[in-house]
Amino acid sequence: MTSTPAILITGGAQRVGWHSAQRLASDGFRVIITCRHWRAEWPEQGPAGIEVILADFSTNEGIELFIEELKAQVSSLRAIVHNASTWCADTDLNADDFQAMYAVHMLAPYMINKACSSLLNQPQADIVHITDHDALSSDPDYVAYLATKAGLESMTRSFARRFAPAIKVNSIAPALIMFNISDTAEHKQHILEQSLLGFEPGPEVFYRTLRYLLENPYITGTCLDLNGGGRLKYA
Fold first, then answer.
1. Which partner for 11 in 82, 84, 138, 188 could form a disulfide, CB atoms 3.0-4.6 Å apart?
2. Element (H, E) at 223
3. Closest Cα to residue 5, out of 112, 108, 123?
4. Which pTM value belongs to this model?
């Protein structure tokens, strides 16, 4: 175990989580990420400058095992970024899928925050929940997914009150950040038309938002809706 404070990013092996982990590591932070499976492109000793803990947050047992492993590896945390996510459209949803989304989006952050708050013992410490822009409004095709993300959004304010003033707790609610490789041109155009700014920003805008929350000492219980002006499009 090392006493160097770490930033934990759950679900940090791909997309905005991976970009943020790499940027934080390059800026000199100790970074720990979680993922469910080891990535084939990683060397046997792990990605340079980033520690990896394999974890499955879809079950109570998996969450508890992760907490035990984390406490065995660190004695101090600078921040916890709850980025782990899973999703399923309602057309394909079954009860097990809903339970998994609830566990990943709500139960895991709840259990980790409670169990690991004592590790957030730095003069400035943060918890950041990654929710979803649409969880602040609605989408008829993703009722279950957005309900669990909205639950995480609600926990932001409650945990902010519980942990103040020692730990700041905020959320980021992204809309479009990065397209998927499989997205069609028609789908991309449809998504771009939903924002005022009308472009795919890429993961650096997410990282800058995260760093803003980590560095600003006077913001807690707040959601940063990272949406490119989407709420104004149809106002």
1. 84
2. strand 223-226
3. 123
4. 0.95
Amino acid found at 80: I
Q: Which residues pair with 174 in a beta bridge?
A: 226
Q: Residue 215 corresponds to which amino acid?
A: E
24-39: average pLDDT = 97
Query: Token digits for 113?
Result: 């925050």
Catalytic residue flag (residue 212)? no
The position carrying tokens 């650096």 is 204
Catalytic residue among 102, 145, 212, 218: 145
Alpha-carbon dihedral sign for residues 214, 220, 225, 231? negative
pLDDT at residue 235 is higher than 70: no
- Residue-wise pLDDT for 100-154, tens only, equals 999 999 999 999 999 999 999 999 999 999 999 999 888 888 899 999 999 999 9
